[in-house]
Amino acid sequence: MQFTQFNLIDPRFDTLFRLAKEVTPYLAGEVAPVRSDGIALGHNEAMFSQELYQALAKNYPEAGNVYWLTRTWELLCWQPIFLGFISVYQMQAIPPMERIAQYKLPMFTTGFSFPGGRWETGEHAELIEKVAIKLQQLFTAYREQMGEWTRIRPGFTNHLIADGVLENVARQRLLFPEMRDEQVMAEAKLWLNAFNLSHDHLHSYRWDQTQDHLVMIRQTCCQAHRCDDKNWCGNCPKTPENKTLVVYS
Description:
The protein is mainly α. 45% of the residues lie in helices and 10% in strands. It is built from seven helices and six strands. It has a three-stranded mixed beta sheet. It is globular and about 50 Å long. InterPro entries: FCR-like.
């Protein structure tokens, strides 16, 4: 007697895709093998990132290497970080993040896929540790492959990762408005610990007297103001108004 083996897809993928598109339609996901034009571990890392960098350089020649490199790195990381936070805070389970594939327009990453795979559960702090390990594996591969065609230091990427993580911690207040400042700080410490990042990054959280709660000010400048058609970001560390905000403690 022969049995047909069915490859069942975990229904939590559909939930993740729905929640992701509620954040932004650019976070469009599917269960599928990585396409030839995508980036995934062991697939196309150097070419994918170099094409992004070259497109940015072509369209923003005035901005210079510091912008092209910063923007390329942030484009590689934003989808995995957002999905990691959705998984931990809204689903209390994490997909095989190390198997994610990403896709792009000429100057923007949008869309992702998973080939299926096993989800993991656990206590809240344990989930943060697990997803951080998977994201670190992913980001280390991205950086090493970018290092084949440009100079990109771990210290540089770690600062940008810290900013991305701490922005997303603060963003959880949109979903959980009852979160107090102390809870935001406690969650931020869990994430920094999981990524082996210094607690000095907590200085990103400043006290905004007007809003009567902490706000997140980046420690790194994204350099977008170097582009002719862009301005300073609202949480830029270089603007005079943000420089006057006191570090939250």
